[in-house]
Specification:
This protein is of the alpha/beta class and 382 residues long. Helix content is 48%, strand content 11%.
Length: 382
Amino acid sequence: MKIISTNPDLQDLCTRFAHAPFVAVDTEFMREGTYWSELCLIQIATANEAVIIDPLAEGIDLSPFMDLMANPNVVKVFHAARQDVEIFVQQFDTVPIPLFDTQIAAMAAGFGEQVSYEALAKAMVKAKIDKASRFTNWARRPLKDSQLKYALDDVIHLAALYPKLRKRLEDGNRLEWIAEDLEILTNPRTYDMIPDQAWRRLRLRRKTTPYLAALKAAAAWRERTAQANNKPRNRILRDEALEELAMNKVQTIEAMNDLRAVPKGFGRSKWGPELAACLADALADPEAYAPDVEFKGRPDPIPPAKLEMLKVLLKIRSDEIGVASKLIATASDLEAFARGEQTFTGWRHEVFGRDAERVLAGEIAFRLRGETVEMVELSAHA
């Protein structure tokens, strides 16, 4: 079993693979007790060769691999790529392009929503995935042969199924259907973890300027501290603590220590004075520091029957064309459409949007025929 652990071997591998039309890629990482993922293994395969790269090998420089990931002439094939790409973007400032995600592609090919890798590999290449090593501590060395085989098998099967899955989409003229989702995956902004934007992940419970300023400051401080110390956010302070700090406009260690959600002794820790100072700075001029938040009033209620008709239509159309309904429209998409806030464009308009407009215009109804719901053209029976 080939394991790349030296720079000359890695350079030679990446030079060879740069001439392949595609490479299948997977990673193994650990993140349970850290903010940043620890990259432990990289598995990569072409149609004819599969190897493991050890990113923890002493002195190894992953630059040749990252150059390969950025090579526009080689398609990078992943399954459920988001976490893998996140590591490459955040730690190596590299976006794998062009990218093909077999989980997204499978939704357009009729395999349902978020199909598992095991199910897809079994359906397309008759592969049986051994799950015995799934919960391996990938940072431990040496790894057993059975663990390395488990890791390598993933890209071997991925390299085998990719051409078949791509051809299935091409034959059905469906490559365009996944383009938007792939564009999101390859947009570096998808993986931004900017401290001053961390407040966006929290639920806003008040509209007042001091509250918003304090919440933004507390969230930004926690994000910076988590990043600098490589600890999960909730190991620094839980969301509930940030909420209490903002609600009470805390600016001192003493006030901090009075809060139930703040751990006992936190104010006396090295972090207590830092956080208190950040809050005090923000609350000194809350108008300048608070984020600009647009609070929308409660939207007008959607008649339940209206929304249900759209859901029925979505189910009919997704079943007819063999594509996961989520790829066409989410629940929030349907609600926005029902309110007139959104229209469907491109292929989504062709397969769903046009009929959805006609359903809401009263031109299409539904009827039950046996065990099947079908659409009826009302204008044709007028």
